Amino acid sequence: MKVIKSLNGEPVPIPQVRKELDEAYEIDTKFENSRVLYSMCNSPPQIAREAHLKFIEANLGDSPLYPGTLILEKSVISMIGGLLHAPDTMAGSILNGGSEANILSLWIAREKRNTSKELEVVVPESAHYSIEVACKMLRLKMRPIPLDENYVMDFKAAKENIKENTCAVVGIAGTTELGVIDPIPQLSKLCEERGIHLHVDAAFGGFVFPFLELAGWEGKFPLFDFRLMGVRSITVDPHKMGRSTQPAGALLVREQSDLQYIKFNSYYLSSSVQHTMLGTRCSASVASAYAVMRSMGKNGYINMLQGCMKRTNYLCRLLKEEKFQPAIEEPIAPIVVIKFPQEYVEAIRKTLQESPYDWRVSVCRHPPGIRVVLMPHVRDDILPSFVNDLKLVCEKLKIR
Amino acid sequence: MKVIKSLNGEPVPIPQVRKELDEAYEIDTKFENSRVLYSMCNSPPQIAREAHLKFIEANLGDSPLYPGTLILEKSVISMIGGLLHAPDTMAGSILNGGSEANILSLWIAREKRNTSKELEVVVPESAHYSIEVACKMLRLKMRPIPLDENYVMDFKAAKENIKENTCAVVGIAGTTELGVIDPIPQLSKLCEERGIHLHVDAAFGGFVFPFLELAGWEGKFPLFDFRLMGVRSITVDPHKMGRSTQPAGALLVREQSDLQYIKFNSYYLSSSVQHTMLGTRCSASVASAYAVMRSMGKNGYINMLQGCMKRTNYLCRLLKEEKFQPAIEEPIAPIVVIKFPQEYVEAIRKTLQESPYDWRVSVCRHPPGIRVVLMPHVRDDILPSFVNDLKLVCEKLKIR
Fold first, then answer.
1. Which residues of chain B from 327 to 386 reach within 8 Å of chain A, CB to CB?
2. pLDDT at position A282, please?
3. What residues 204-223 of chain B have any CB closer than 8 A to a CB of chain A?
4. In which order are the strands placed within the sheet that holds A369-373?
5. Is B266 close to A129, i.e. CB distance below 8 A?
6. Contact B49 A49 (CB under 8 A)
7. Dihedral sign (CA A27, A30, A34, A38)
8. What's the pLDDT score for residue A267?
9. pLDDT by residue (tens digit) across A107-144?
10. For a Cys-Cys bond, which of A191, A341, B238, B347 suits A196, CB 3.0-4.6 Å?
11. Which residues have C-beta within 8 Å of that of residue A241, sequence separation ≥ 6?
């Protein structure tokens, strides 16, 4: 398998192209073998793939050509909006992922202020790097707020850092590293009083917490959705726990009128107004999200999440039996961080990846540790051997 | 076919989901019927779809998991780089389309200047709206330059508008509306002298002009690629004339070191450095671009383009026989704009779309007219009836 340096003159016969694709596919990591323990991407069900392929030509950037796909998008937005208790004024789009949704939300927040003065965004230190990307692109000053003892944004520090020129506050529902939820109810109240745009990044949590709540976990975690009047926009990724194909990230705004701040004319298309960043909007994954949501239903997601949480708790129990320390005593999302002194974390991660262990994990910064995400494709029967390998690696590295 | 308002409780059976997808698909417009005459999207060949589906789980945002897909991406970038005569220092990525590539290029140009002063971007009035999006997001002042009598950026006006605070000039190779090429050789010389980032938007033209040049059209249009030393970055869309699935837009930069300006750490992934805007990078379409490029080869694209240009010239001839006026005497890309007085353009477009005509065309601003793109899926046998319908519509509207 090598890089092809230049375009061939004559066509390469299809069987040869297939062989080359097979070679590339062969060395790619697969989720099905359950050894990738940190990815938030998923292995979409068959119906999601089937729908994707069927709508592969559709481009919602030119929606008048695709009234059918547009209905699918409206349905997906409406279904997600329902899960997040959105009011009737809500509007949304399916974009190329949570990053694009986060960038758009801060762009809206900046434009609302209609000033050339430097504006600031208050974000938890645990924010996804797309928030940093957004701030740099949009020339917004990012004010990172330290985490409290529960690894969520310290509300008091956040409050102190909100100033006259703060145009947005970002709260996270299901942090990338730990799966915890920022004090969004308090932030909502504060932002509502101060007239500041509160954006909630629920890229991961948007397809987790609504179903856990329905499954009886109510009260075990704070509210984060449109029931909180200060929440102006929410990012949710169907291509993570929603089980759709990539790329599919949703941005929902409380008031459709907020989209006016990012309106553009694309004269050359039949739809002449755009509210998104990119001209071509992959619509195959919109159909995929529709198909998988319909075919799962609330009960399908509830069952899936209960399975993930069962495996999460099982892993925590196995870890504690071996005297490892999970960062979160009672996880509210299928993410486990195993605490280690900072100086050992990278060595553990690397050694776990090597032969004979062959595990792919990632690291957590706050607290320092090894991070495992229990996506639906991670089977429970591999967890004892993972914990055992972690033990062996720690012994090998003389950590314990 | 109606919008689904909320997520069902019980799973909807797969056959019912399929039926709903069929209903949506039914009302979507299809390229295969050859009545969509303005889209720059394409109907990808079978091998492109097959490759897409095979790599549907891959996420190049986390490339260490996908060494195979990464080789496919490097191959695609290298093949495109070869077509554009890129030097060895070149680097690039496949992004979600030309819009994202254009935004990234101007972001790089802004960061290079490393100043908080307001910077400007000189662009032709014919620029794609993603350039306007980029300028608004990045807080760059856009200086639109009028077009000359050949509908390309007026070089003299461009030169006069380049100032101390100009951080980038955008030239277009294959304008969205007319398919013409800006005076990029002159712009290149000027930008090189002045140390200004020259970005070339060849989203459409990048898979057109290199093959027409190989087919003997050399000298019929100006150079626009890395052979011009002032060209710092180029946008090329495999998902347009490259025949890949969506979303696939390439950004190539002359010097890999330019990417340092947009470097981010994504600690939670195994690849800790990102040079793109979005965390999840759809990789299925990268595999698709690879497969279709290999299976077409230079000769496949040359044949395809020669076919498109033959149909373009055929349409021009039919139009002239009926005393319609194509804006460009000898088109260099498969786009035809039929000139009409501004006040009639929208009425003609709308009437053509209605029964019994049922044609989808779009409009051109400079000059005012009806725009037709002769993509590979537009068959030649429909062109006489299109011209005849245009005649009937003009008679009906009492335009001629």
1. 360, 362-365, 371
2. 79
3. none
4. A335-339, A369-373, A362-364
5. yes
6. no
7. positive
8. 62
9. 999 999 999 899 999 999 999 989 999 999 999 999 99
10. A191
11. A40, A42, A204, A206, A207, A208, A301, A305, A375, A376
Q: What is the mean predicted confidence (pLDDT) over B279-302?
A: 94
pLDDT, tens digit, for every residue of B117-173?
A: 999 999 999 999 899 999 999 999 999 999 999 999 999 999 999 999 999 999 999
Residue A197: its H or E element: strand A197-201
| DSSP conformational letter for B42 | -
Residue B335's identity, in one-letter code, is: I
What distances in angstroms separate CA B162 from CA B130, B144, B297, one per listed residue?
Answer: 21, 11, 40
Interatomic CA distance for residues A323 and A400, integer angstroms: 10
User: Residue A263: what pLDDT?
Assistant: 81
Report the amino acid identity of residue A65.
L
CA angle B353, B357, B358 (to 5 degrees): 45
| pLDDT average, residue stretch B18-33 | 94
Is residue B236 classed exposed, middle or buried when 0-12, 13-18 and 19+ CB atoms within 10 A define those classes?
buried
- Which ranges of B32-123 would DSSP assign to H, the alpha helix? 46-54, 67-83, 98-113
pLDDT of residue A238: 97
**pLDDT bracket for residue B282 (50, 70, 90):** confident
Cβ–Cβ under 8 Å, residues B211 and B302: yes
Backbone angles phi, psi at A134, to 5 degrees: -60, -45
The pLDDT of residue B269 is: 63
- At the top level of CATH, the class of A47-293 is alpha beta
The whole-angstrom separation of Cα A68 and Cα A50 is 16
Let me know: does A24 contact B72? Beta carbons within 8 Å. Answer: yes
CB contact under 8 Å between B28 and A270, yes or no, is no
Superfamily of structural domain B31-43+298-396: Aspartate Aminotransferase, domain 1 (3.90.1150.10)
Round to whole Å and give the CA distance between B205 and B212: 10
Instruction: Flag whether residue B150 sits within 8 Å of chain A, measured between CB atoms.
Output: no
CB B192 within 8 A of CB B229: yes
Dihedral sign (CA B368, B210, B375, B307) = positive
Of B237, B175, B262, the closest CA to residue A103 belongs to B262
CATH architecture of A31-43+299-396: Alpha-Beta Complex (3.90)
Identify the DSSP state of A140.
-
Residue B322 pLDDT more than 70?
yes
Coil vs helix vs strand at B23: helix
Flag whether residue A117 sits within 8 Å of chain B, measured between CB atoms: no
Closest CA to A280 of B56, B27, B170, B42: B42
Of A317, A377, A334, nearest in space to A179 by CA = A334
With contacts defined as CB-CB under 8 Å, which chain B residues touch A54? 21, 25
**Amino acid identity of A304?**
M
For residue B238, name the pLDDT band (cuts at 50, 70, 90).
Answer: very high
Q: Say what angle helices A129-138 and B129-138 make with each other, to 10 degrees.
A: 100
Chain-centre distance for alpha carbon A271: 29
Most confident of the following: A61-65, A316-320, B267-271: A316-320
The domain locations on chain B are: 31-43+298-396, 47-293
Contact of A245 with A48, CB cutoff 8 Å? yes
Alpha-helical segments (H) within chain B = 14-27, 46-54, 67-83, 98-113, 129-138, 155-161, 184-194, 209-212, 284-321, 342-353, 383-396
